[in-house]
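note to self: dont lose this again. the chain is below, predicted strucutre after it. 280 aa total, dont forget to put it in the shared folder this time
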Amino acid sequence: MKVAVSGASGFLGSYVKSELNRRGHQALGWSRREYPGCTAFDIARSDQLEEVIKTQKPEALIHLAAISEVAQCQNSPALARKINVSAAEKIAHLAARYGLRLVHVSTNQVFDGSRGGWREDDETNPLNIYGETKLSGENRVLRAFPEAVIVRPCLITGIAPPGRRSSTSDILDKLRNGAPLKMFTDETRSPVAASDVARVVVDLAEKPEISGLLHCGGDEALTRFEMASRLAETGGYDRSRIETATREEMGMHLNRPTDLSLDSSRLRKALGWAPRSGLN
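---
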């Protein structure tokens, strides 16, 4: 199957392309900038997007491209809306028009973090522009193409490819280099391995009978401090070097939800397997 991957040059995109290739699919990488193995174009432009679809003729589309840095969205809300909302809607309309299987990747930041174990039918209430724009993107995708499936991953773990960043790579680099490392004790997530998120979205690309919202988190709810401690243990580093901190102490308590751990039972039932944290 020919599967287009938007945002293929990013952290998760590299894992998705590898998973597609492992299964024998033809991965068509799409990127905003020139990148090896990718077609570069402006995904927010309908004419360019449609031309690439008509030329490459994918059968499925895994949409990862987004403005995903919370701070960047806060500082550039117009750009966040252009990519996270308008471009997502255009992709959904074109996927519906050309009969493509659409897997749209969103975020757990659509919730306010007032508790944990969020389910797909819980009330959304994003605290930042990133969450607001991704929620608007979800709604527009489902209006334009009800047969699409939307995946909300939790914090994604894993080693980033060269030239890219991930929270896991940042923590391990600091542990390796002896750099100061403070981690929050008051921010909880259900971390999920990038390799497992890739497996999820490729599974869903192969299963057009599944539609709607699915949560994708690991099997444990952990604080940022607990995640870093687990990585230190796994990597053989001294976990005592990791200092504890609260978001308020670090001046980072605004627009950051407290608990975004997810209930992923619907996903487990649909696919027959459970994603892991990727920290061991």
